Amino acid sequence: MTQVKALILTGFGLNCDHETALAFELAGARPYRVHINSLVDGTVNLADFHILAFGGGFSWGDDHGAGVIQAVKLKNHIGKDLLGFVDAGKLIIGICNGFQALVNTGLLPGLDKDYTRRSVAITYNDCGNFRDQWVHLTANPESPCVFTRGMGQADFPVRHGEGKFIAEPDVLTSLQANGQVVFQYADATGSPADGVFPFNPNGSLHDIAGICDPTGKIFGLMPHPEAYNHVTNHPDWTRRKEQLKGEGQAFGAEETIGIRLFQNGVDHIRERFF
Amino acid sequence: MTACIEIALKQSLGDAEASSLVKKADSYFKIHIESARTIHMLTIDSDLKTQDLERIRQEIFTNPVTQVSSLSPLEIDFHWCIWIGLRPGVKDNPGATAMEAVEDLLGRSFGPDEGIYTSKRYCLSGESLTRSQVEILAKELLSNPIIQQYKIFSKADWHPETGANVKPARVILDHTPCFDFIDIDSDQTLAKISDQRNLALNPRDIPVIRQYFLDPEVATQRQAVGLPGPTDVELEYISQARSDHCNHNTFRGIFKYTDVMTGEKTIEHSLFKTYIQQPTLALKQKKDWVVSVLWDNAGVGAFDEHNNYVITGETHNSPSNMEAYGGAITGIVGVYRDPMGTGLGSKLFMGSFGFCVGDVNYDGPLKPPLHPRRLLNGVIEGVRDGGNKSGVPTTFGQTLFDPGYIGKSLVFVTALGIMPRQVKGRPSHEKKTSPGDLIIMSGGRVGKDGIHGVTASSESYSENTPAGHVQIGDPYTQKKMHDFLLECRDEGLIRFITDNGGGGLSSSIGESAMISNGCVVYLDKVPLKYPGLDMWEIWVSESQERMTIAIDPKDLDRFMSLSRQHAVESTVIGEYTDTGKLHITFQGKTCAYVDMDLLDKGFPAWEFDAVWLPPAARGLTEPVIRRPEDFNGLMTAMLARPNICSKEWIIRQYDHEVQGGSVIKPLVGVNHNIPSDASVTRPVLTGNKGLAFSQTLLPWYSKIDAYHMMTCTVDEAVRRLIAVGGSLDHIGGVDNFCWPDIGYDEKTNPDGRFKAAQLVRACRALKDACMAYEIPLLSGKDSMYVDGHLEGAFGERIKVSALETVQFSATSVVEDILHCQTLEPKSAGDFVYVAGITADELGASEYYDLFGKTGANVPQVNFGANRVLYRAVEKAMGLEMPASCHAVGRGGLGVHLALMTMAGRLGMEIDLSQVPAAAETLSDDVLLFSESAGRFVLTVPPDRKPVFDKLAKGLPFRCVGGVTDAHDRLKITGVRNDVIVDLACADLDKAFNKLFGEMI
User: Fold this and answer.
1) Does the global pTM surpass 0.95?
2) Distance between CA B971 and CA B832 in Å, rounded?
3) Which residues of chain A are under the pLDDT cut of 50?
4) pLDDT tens, B741-770?
């Protein structure tokens, strides 16, 4: 096995599978878009992959809570495979709807290595509406999260109606103590948004935008790194280009921080498994 | 047995839905609610064991972190409780997903008599609340009687054990399906039956229909299959096919056009053929990139070497006027099926919206079915849920206000798809049905919903309009089907595909069977939502999320296996033949048997009288307005106007970047809050090509002359594309006409002839504009009868017609997206240029409207001059000369300079005397607010100025000022050399966000 194989879930209303696959491809992995039913009926075996991506979308229309039915279905049918995947030290990333599904399966936050307990929730935005906007994120340098290694700040879009991260105070304390808070919404200077809208777009407690499990191998976040797969995705790219032009520099070839996030995951697999 | 699960957020958590109710109650109705909570309810109509009920309650329907739930009514205190549930038969999407989840978890299937139904109750606290206030909230805010029912409980009414006592909203028809023979002994009889059965047959069609069925040869053939006379199924088929919605009788009609002033008399034999088809076909000859136009569900253009793009636009006006959310979500989800059913099927990659509504603060006596405010909220949410849940970015959208739209508001939805040019070695844009192909229906099931939707949208709204045709689209079911069908396409399984929209199977099979020349359909095979539908109902039902597909019988197993994998229901419901007959059976009995060419049997064209009175003859003159003194006040007043001000709160509710291809977003500028000229998207993520997309709506100019409305609309759409980096070499267009009734009637439509003339003129203008800019019309639709008869203060009904409106959508392929540009000035020291000539063209402008005036000097488009100018701008953009580029639109230079200032957060210093003008005598207000077409504002850095100036030589480009970081103000010097506008960004922001700034 020389290829890092990434499985991206599809079907039942999921919808970011193509760009998530592209992001993995740009990061050097071989992506496989796999219908949830193919895992359920055993046509595809999860153990054959290194990275599992729960992507964005509206699984089951987000009726009855975002990511809820997806979580129940996966737990019900391939719960053991998922735990085996985690035990094998492989990587799981959940983005937006995928993050919601991960917290509803209990794979996150995985406190005390209990990967079945729901102890945090992602609920309706304080603003009361679905919202698409780019956010500034600040990464926690103390976090064990493998996807954000070496990252300081990042800009990604959020696109959700249910993105407010909540948990009981003791859970929040544990998350912080374990370095499980990976990304926080920030202002333009990179300081945590301190709940201020629209920097914190949904009212998440402690400005939490993404968390990982204690090992750093399961990662969930509301913003969409795969939507920053090209320099022109960034809302400020035309200004940045003019600025670079003014400085006599070229624009357009650099890798985005969105792809770097996936790259970190792929590199980790290469280091550990090959 | 019925069980009910009640679910609520924990008391410690904020309830956004309830808070929104409290807020709206106060701001809309001045009803004060102290606090409110929402309870979600699931009524389970099944005999599940208690342990199973407990299991699903805990494992599926309750989030232990955020929610509490119970199998008995939750004890949440209230003064009043409002329960809202759907009427039986209305699509309950969360009910369906709940059922799917329960079936999966418990490993059992629900039988036909079982189901899960969702509803809600709101617990309202407030000592002072009265029953009548609570009634208002239930009726005017929380429910719509067309789709919902409500119950109100006071504290005293409430029984803690039975609670809201919800009965399952199961449909029980208790009817044995059948078909009827229709009596056609005279034209009068048939006309009467048409009325009674809501067939909406045109009186002029009736003799043709009778003649066909009375033809002895036809009668003999029909006798042989057991049909003595026409059946209701057959007449419904004819009615659907002949409806204005499906057949476009208006655009194919005969217009006798008279210009009263010149005496010019012309006969227009078909507006469609003359002004849409003929120019488009001529341009197709010239333009290699035009792949497929004028026949399929959407037009097809070349995108790159390996892919084609697909585009179409629709309106969903009538249903949205009665049930805004349901109508709008059905509209967007419906238009998304068109690209899925174009060629062998395309993958959706973007959509857009256009909303035209009445004054959201209207407090006059007229009673539209829904208040504009409520209607707007509903359509925003409907298109939002439909688009977002389809996983398709909504990259562009506009919202307009005009008093005319209170009669009928307009909901435009546009869809674009992308498909590989070749599928298994076959061109993807070609398809056909052949004898022996199986007819498959995939997706949703058929119910009573949507019956007679097509014929209802072909009539104006009145108190008799049947409301039963309102539906609620289901993007979840459709998204599953979308993914499934693309896999089938890529495996080469699809021979023909089309969607079920207006007219249902009647249209989709009726039209696709024309290709093979016949079909036999087994209506009893069609999966139903509930039993008891008559044959004609199954045949014409517009139940959503369905596609009709032709496959080779040898591919059936593979097709069905993919269908199961994707959890999509597919059913073989017939076969294409070459018998020349549309043959429909039910349980072996024939219920329709007509010739495929029946619709060519000499049905008469519709005829209209069109009488044109030029603006001067109608007494339109310029208002007399002396030069204002307070330009700062004027500028902020303009920016605050509903049709100019920020609609960020609407645009942000739409996911505009899912699929990862966003290049130019709908909102741009430093603060990401200024509407962009156009959007640019990469539908193919591995390349650097983009698709630029713009839309324009300028209905106000129709007040003066719909000809110029049309030319200005097309011109602005083109200019918007050029401003972001599009090219004149490739511009595709989509026209969506929305027109008030043009059929003259002395009593009911006395100005019908004028409106007909306006339509003729708009069509002529469309051709002129398309030929000038070489725009093939890739797709287009018309929606007539945008009028309403609204009840007034004294029980009278007043007809209110919408403005003659065309939404024009335009596309361009951008060769290298890195050349794209946005409208905000980027750097201090850059020069500001105005390109294009400003003339005294304030007719029907935003400026005149500020004073309640119309005027006469409507902007006129000089295509020849514009073409040269646009080429120069395009070239400059390709060379990356401008650091920003913006098309000047509604509100004129003043408004658009303000938008650029707000976007760039830099100062702009402008000298109006330098603006290229048609005359030296133009005053400051004309220069600032004239809406002359053909203009851009650009900024150019000093080092690129020499090359830019060379490029612009001899053309109306003038440097009018500069960008500075010495301040962040818009400073405009007037023609008398005095500073007339001096406003900081913050002042501009304040005005721009005044109306809707509070909304998020």
Assistant:
1) yes
2) 13
3) none
4) 999 999 999 999 999 999 999 999 999 999
CA dihedral sign of residues B558, B560, B563, B567: negative
- Please give the residue range of the domain that contains residue B103: 2-154
Q: What would the pLDDT profile of B861-907 be if each residue is shown by its tens digit? A: 999 999 999 999 999 999 999 999 999 999 999 999 999 999 999 99
**CA B103, CA B89: separation in Å to the nearest integer?**
21
Last residue of a domain, one of B549, B582, B599: B599
B112 and B228 both lie in a single domain: no
Q: What's the number of domains chain B is made of?
A: 3
Q: Do B658 and A166 count as a contact with CB atoms less than 8 A apart? A: no
Q: CATH number of the domain at B139, please.
A: 3.30.1280.10
Same domain for B150 and B199? no
β-pair partners for A184:
A138, A208
SS (H, E, C) chain A: CCCCEEEEEECCCECCHHHHHHHHHHCCCEEEEEEHHHHHCCCCCHHHCCEEEECCECHHHHCCCCCHHHHHHHHHHHHHHHHHHHHCCCEEEEECHHHHHHHHHCCCCCHHHCCCCCCEEEEECCCCCCEEEEEEEEECCCCCCCCCCCCCEEEEEEEECEEEEEECHHHHHHHHHCCCEEEEEECCCCCECCCCCCCCCCCCHHHEEEEECCCCCEEEECCCHHHCCCHHHCCCHHHHHHHHHHCCCCCCCCCCHHHHHHHHHHHHHHHHHC
Of B61, B65, B883, the CB nearest to A120: B65
Q: Does B183 touch chain A (CB under 8 A)?
A: no
Tell me: ipTM over 0.85: yes
B17 domain residue, yes or no? yes
Beta bridge partners of B334: none
Domain boundary among B599, B616, B644: B599
Q: Which of residues 920-949 of B touch A (CB under 8 A)?
A: 941
Is B880 domain-assigned? Answer: yes
Is the per-residue pLDDT at B428 higher than 90? yes
Domains of chain A: 5-273 (3.40.50.880)
B654 touches chain A (CB under 8 A): yes
Chain B positions in Cβ-Cβ contact with residue A127 (cut-off 8 Å): 16, 1000
Residue B466 has pLDDT above 70, yes or no: no
Per-residue pLDDT tens digits for B643-677? 999 999 999 999 999 999 999 999 999 999 999 99
Question: Would B621 be classed as within a structural domain?
Answer: no
Q: What is the CATH number of the domain that holds B212?
A: 3.90.650.10
Q: Which of the four pLDDT bands, split at 50, 70 and 90, describes residue B980?
A: very high
Total CB pairs under 8 A between chain A and B: 192
Distance in angstroms (rounded) separating the CA atoms of residues B302 and B311: 11
B659 close to B764: Cβ distance less than 8 angstroms: no
And the tokens for A200?
Answer: 């914190």
Contacts of B481 (CB under 8 A, 6+ apart): B340, B442, B443, B545, B547, B566, B568
Is A16 known to be catalytic?
no
